[in-house]
User: Fold these one by one.
Assistant:
Number 1:
Amino acid sequence: MAYGLGLLKGMGVAFRNLVRGPITVQYPDERLALPQRARWAVIPLWDGSGATRCTACTNCVRACPDGILDLRVTTREDKTKHIDAFDYEIGACMMCGLCVEACPFDAIAMGQDYELATSDVERMTVSLLSDVDAASARREKPASEAVAPAPGDAPAGEA
Amino acid sequence: MSDPGRDIVGALAALALMLTNGVVLIYMLRKVLGRFHLRLGPMRVGWRGLLQTPMDVVKLLTKEDFEPAMTDKWVFRLAPLVVFVPSFAAYLPLAFSPTLRFAGLETGALFILTALAIIPVGVLMAGWASNSKWSLLGGMRATAQQIAYEVPLLLALVGPVMLAGSLDMTEIVLSQQGAWLGVLPRWYVIPQFGAFVLFFIAALAELNQTPFDMSVAESELVEGFANEYSGMKFAFFFLAEFSNSFIIAALMVTLFFGGWLVPFVDPGLTAPIAPVVFLVKVYLVIFVLMWIRATLPRIRIDQLLAFGWKGMIPFGLLWILSTGLVMKLAEVTG
């Protein structure tokens, strides 16, 4: 009895799509808003005063599966570090985000610039940072994050 | 009707209609398929992409006429014409109004199917001469399919022709005037619904339309028989394909939907716009074909052939038999 009804049902679905109207946009003229979690290439982040958060720990360089991050550092006698160059070979990046995962200081993030195509081979490598002093690696815990010791934390026999 | 000047003008008009129709249908196909796919279709060239197809024509015309090295040269060159010319010839009996037609043919409906029957030969020639596995497979499939489905197409034609008592396209339309019981238009789609379904399915196969597009089968055979063709030779195949949709749709409108007749309106009133009514109906049928194309997947070639030989043809014969019986009974009982 129901033989062939599936065909008609499918035709109905197609017709609903027809009257629904296009969902695509004319890309270079119109753009859709990016989802908040969209991510493309790596960008550097700065703290409130505009100084880099990078401590030149090189965790990101070691985390990168493609080996495309190049962090050149000079360590001064007082153990502070100076970043000579932090180069990022964007043309070889697969946007996996492992460098961002590895960064303990939130110094880099995945950006939202997706129009990365270029005809210039020089633009395949971008400089994230160059010739800046690295941030101090000492972390000051904000007061709001201080946690009162839980009762169970006290050594046995003292309470 | 044997005035040579009139015949030449008629042939040129048919050619003009065929070429214009090709351009219009390609644009329509891209727009309609786009909408079905939630896309916009061509938008860039001209207002809403209107100039896209004319520009494509210019591109095809100016393209290098390339032939692969190992082809069978003359068969390769002849094949597009063997496909194109019958498709052009099939325009001649079409009747756009009681008076407007390219050439008066008393066997018009049969002539159209006869002309379309030559097309598989050209398709097989193209597939064979291309010296490519995909082309040959596409050509073989197209031939097997079109030969198998020409029979039900012809059988579906018989029912309305029996009712109309004529093969002339004008006569068939004129016999559909009036209404039954004052409400149903006397279109043959109602008494001949079985023949209509048969005709519709066979037409899809004849046009290599989804779900019967194995000869082109883009995902398997790239472009089937037309694989090795480029430039204007490819354009001939392409144009023939779109002109065939027009012909089959026009035949369907003539046989089952009363040609240029508007239901419940006196034919004398609509006479000035009869060709427009006819074209609107034809394009509606073509729209339904595109709708199917946007929806249904392709079936397998063995399923297609089994369905054609074991299902469609016996059903067509039974339908003719029952039509004849009913007509005879009506005659006997008065």
Number 2:
Amino acid sequence: MFHLDALSLIFLFLILLGVIPNLFYSQGYLPHIERKAHYLVHYFAFILSMLGVVTAANAMVFLFFWEVMSLTSWQLILTEPKEKGTIEAARFYFFMTHFGFVFLLLFFLIATRGDLQMSFEQMHGVVAHFAYPTLLFFFLALGLLSKAGAVPLHVWLPYAHPAAPSPVSALMSGVMLKVAIYGMFRFLFDVLYPWPLEWGVLILVIGALSSLVGVLYALSEHDIKALLANHSIENIGIILIGFGMGMIFDSLGLGVLSSFAFLAAFFHTFNHMSFKSLLFMGAGSVLHETHTKNIEKYGGLAKAMPITALTFLLASISISALPPTNGFLSEWMIFQSLLGSSQIADMSLKLAIPFAIFALALTGGLAIACFVKAYGITFLGLHRSANAKHAREVNALMRFGMLAMAGVVLSLMLFAPWYLRLFDQTMVALGHAGVYAKLFPEGVWSLHSVAVHGGVVSPLLLLGALLGVTALIYYASQALDIKTRLHRTWACGYRTGPRTQYSATGFAGPIRRFFDWLYRPEEHLHKETLAGHRTKFKSSGYEVHVKPLFERSLYEGSVKTVNWVSYWVYRLAHFEQTRYAAMIFNLMLLVLFSYRIFAHQFSWATFALESVVMLISFKVLIIGEKR
Amino acid sequence: MILYLATLVLLVLLAPLLLGFIKALKMRLLFKRPLPIWQSYYDFAKLLHKETILSVESSAVTRIGPMLVLAPLIVALLVLPPAMKGAFYIGFVDAFTLTGLLALSTFFLMLIGLDSASAFGGMGASREAFISALVEPAMVLTVFSVSMMAGSLGVGEAGVRLAEHFPTTHMASFVFAAIAFFILLIAENGRIPVDNPETHLELTMVHEAMILDLTGFHLALIESAASLKFVIFASLFASLFMPFGLGLAAPLALLVFVGKLFLIATAVALVEVNTAKLRLFKVPNLLGIAIVFAFLSLITFYVLGA
């Protein structure tokens, strides 16, 4: 039923790291929740089911806990069913998660030959004799990536995560998505190994697309939790870039580079768990105090909520991949593994990988912009609404939860070598090359890249240098005995007020305008002018809404297609009898012609002739004249 | 070690001078009466003696932020490639980390812009976020390509290796990378055509808008951060793309290095005088050129080996 090998243990550890601070936070958040019993039952069942998924030893148990995980998180989204949009979000989530479940089930049914109690090692034997492993790979990818939220199966994330209560959002985004990553590791390593080159390339492309799409939609978002949910898409993309590079290197026989890339993916999985949980907790605290998710209604919270502000800042720096934080370290490792592509002999692949580097670097730049927005608009400046004005620091349990999670972030930064050794041991246990000795050849102070001409980074020395230099400047300022005076910010002669500041919409303005072709925003501008003046007006407002491209094209597009098809089926059912006869005649023609084409020889001339005959009879007999 | 410290002190002292030199040269070229090139030092001394006015609306970010803007740049200064052969350099920092340090500094600068509740600060931060997001990919690709030619990603290491084995066989990709890096130098330091450091006009401000509400000591910190950033970029350009003259005797090598810095400053001044500032939404075109050159550099390196 259950087993605890290295991979299970490492993800068990990840879940516990994510869950334990969350327990405190959740306890502090509880007074805010109306249906307490409903919440608590599902909350603990959700945690247990995640633990069950990562320790499951056969497909049956895995699928059972996977489904329990989906159902409990679905119920947790429905904790506050009266909030606007919650029911729709839950329904969407329910649909998407079962869409993935169907493919997982198909994968297991084929890979176990119907015997779901089979262990994963035996499944490897079955798959080795299966003629179409790529089909299995597609089933697996659809099943797991729809849970992980990779493009194009990511659309549910920005709806489902904000609808859940904040501790649950932190768990879903920080931990549940990682359970899907566990599935990737488990089944690709244990069952579907070895991989053809194309699979790795596919995962790399999905990763690069997800990272860009995630960060671009995060920038255009005004709902703080939806913004963070979009960043989860981005970070899953970054993890998948590392994962894809690992697969590519492995199928090319570059074992050391492959292990390095997988280590980077592992590390980013942990890092994203830590800072995304922390960010959702911070957002939850802000939401708890201001009762709104709209980022435009925040402002100036750093003074009222210092602990929330400080932990949120730490997580923002880390998720923006700025040195010397843990987020920087894992992204550095992923960059290094991309640089390892210079060792690939295949020229087309070698030339393609710089595009992934480009995507990852652009993602990094945009993530910085996005978190300056998220932090700056939320915590800095003046309050933009009465709710923000009356915000106070949250209760002790919630503060403790956030500080504990900040501790996890810091530990990932300070003890990175220790974590990396754990990941390395997991890779060795999975039967891949160990690279720990190559990462730290001169002790734990500096982390070396295994790529040829690779670089070095020493997070602790950097941290020490940064702190030391800052302290020196601080003491210099003390020694200079600077006189300070408080005064209002100059606002061109008017009083400084909440409305003199930049808004989140305005902040993202240049980027939104540059990516206009992608966003295609709906803009609403209203102005009440004063007595016909063109330049003088009483009130004015500007709103902009961005509907994600994938939702518009892929999802709504398929709905439209289905509607169109069903319309024609309906028309068909209400034809006159003469038309039915005509259709049967046409079908017969089609059968005869195609029989001749397939059974006898094929020639373009007769094919063209027959097509013309078919078209004419179709037009004349079925469509008829336009009325 | 002595040489390392001497270079460091020289670079710090030289930093305001270079910006002053650019300003003076520009004024001379525009037939204005130039400022003394020491003006930046006078300004710095004056700012240190002035009272620091803090905005009532601002939070701890404004009080600590300027130090955190300056600190990563000082750390970046410590890890630059050596200016002469045999000098000590710090080997445990690579180009990605350096890029990250510069981004860290910009991150806090943008937060300071948003902290004072002024429309200018937000506007500057917003524009800076836009520009630096697009600078990032060009920077990383250029770094990647240079590391190929130098045979190392480490900043110091790359400088030394390029000086020892100038990549004569890879001249084409080397020149492409140099062009890309020069555009980045202009963009990251907020010079014309990306930003005009001399105006206080809300249509054009980027860097100045973010720091509009800083005074006294804080402004001195930010101003020195700006000049240090220019020195970092200029000396990176000098070490990576003009790697000659390192083998001379120590004082002479240092002199050659300073000469290179002034050459770069002159080039920047000439670009500033001869181009108009771009509209904000035209800036991506310029950065796009940098990205294309970085790609070209990589592709020529891979495909042609040239």
